[in-house]
Amino acid sequence: MEEFIQNMPKAELHLHIEGTFEPELMFEIAQRNQISIPYASVEELKNAYKFSCLQDFLDIYYQGAQVLQHEKDFYDLTMAYLKKCKEQNIRHTEIMFDPQTHTERGIPFESVLTGIHNACLDAQKEFGISFVLIMSFLRHLSEEEAFKTLKQAEPFKDKIMAIGLDSSEKGNPPLKFVRVFQAAVEQGYIPLAHAGEEGDADYIWQAIDLLQVHRIDHGNNCITDRNLVEEIIERDLALTVCPLSNVALKVVPNIDKHPLKIMMQLGLYLTINSDDPAYFGGYINENFNAIQNSLDLSRWDLYTLAKNSFVYSLASFDEKSKYL
Ligand code: ES4
Ligand code: ZN
C-alpha cells in the first residue's frame, strides 16, 4: 500500500509554507541572519513540538517564522518544500502564506511574495509541479489589519489566486471578516477559510453562508450537524482534511479515532493534506500511510481521495485534465 500511495499522483490543497520550516533549515537561516533561536540544538527544538491545542502550536510556529527575513529565505523555504513534493509525487500544490506574520515585524510584503513565487516558478519549470498561492489572513488580528494586507497585495494580485483565513479559531468567527472577504472577492480572489477545526459547526455555517467559501479547510466538526453535512454536499464543497495535524493538535484523540472514514461514508468530498508538515510529523504520503494503516482504507478509498485533490483544486482545466 505504501508503494501505491507513493505512486499516486496527488495534489496538496492545505499547506502553510511557514509550517514546512524544518528545524535544520531554521538553524541554517538563523545562523546566516545572525538571529538566536531559544533552543540549543535541532533535537531540543524538536522536543518542544508537543502541543495540547492549536494555540500551543501557533505560539511555536510564529516564533519559528521570525527567522525568515529576506527574499532568499522565503525562496529557500519554499524550494525545500517543493523538493519534497517532487519526492512524494505531488503534481500540484496550493500554498498558503501568512503575510501578516512577516509584515508585522517589518519584512516587506514583496520579499515574502517574491521569494515564494520565484521558487514556485522554478519548481514548475524543473519538476513540472503546478501551483496556486493563497494569501491567508490571521484571524486573531483585526478586520482593519486584514484590509491593510489586502491593500498591500494589490500590486501582486495576478500572482495570488485565493484568500484564506487561519490562526486562532475560537473567538475569531468568520463573521469578523465578512467585509474584507467581500472586498477581496470583488477584486477577483477566490474565498477559502479554516473552519470547524476547533470551532464548532456554527463557524462552518458562517464560512459557507457569510464568506461563501469554495472549500473548507479542516471542517471536521461538521459531523455534529446533520443539516450542515447535507448542505456541504449539496453545494459540492470539499473539506481539506489533515490527519496528522488533527492528532498533533488533539482535534482527535488518536489516529485510530479519526472520523475520516465516517465522513467519507456520509458522502462528504475529502482530500488529504499535511497542513504544517515540519511540525506534525509528515508530508502528504505520511498522512496517507497513517490513515490507511489506522482505518484500513481500500485502494478505491485512496484513489478517491487523490482524485478529489485534483477535482477540488484551483488548477486550470489544462492542468487538471492531465490527471482526471
Ligand atoms: C494552522 Cl493547523 C492550523 N490551524 C489554523 N491556523 C494555522 N496556521 C498554520 N497552521
Ligand atoms: Zn491549516
Structural notes for this entry:
By secondary structure, this protein is α/β, with parallel strands linked by helices. It has one domain (2-313): Metal-dependent hydrolases (TIM Barrel, Alpha-Beta Barrel). It has helices spanning 2-7, 23-32, 42-47, 54-65, 71-87, 99-103, 109-127, 143-153, 178-186, 201-209, 226-234, 243-248, 260-265, 277-280, 284-295, 299-311, 317-320; strands at residues 10-16, 90-97, 130-138, 162-166, 190-191, 193-195, 215-218, 238-241, 269-272. The strands form 2 sheets. It has a 5-stranded parallel β-sheet, with helices on both faces. A 4-stranded parallel β-sheet has the order 6-7-8-9. Helix 5 runs parallel beside helix 7 (109-127). The model has no long low-confidence stretch (mean pLDDT 98). Bound molecules: 6-chloro-9H-purine (ES4) and zinc ion. Zinc ion is lined by residues 14, 16, 166, 194, 217, 275.
Summary tags:
single chain, 324 residues, alpha/beta, TIM Barrel, five-stranded parallel beta sheet, four-stranded parallel beta sheet, 49% helix, 14% strand, binds 6-chloro-9H-purine, binds zinc ion
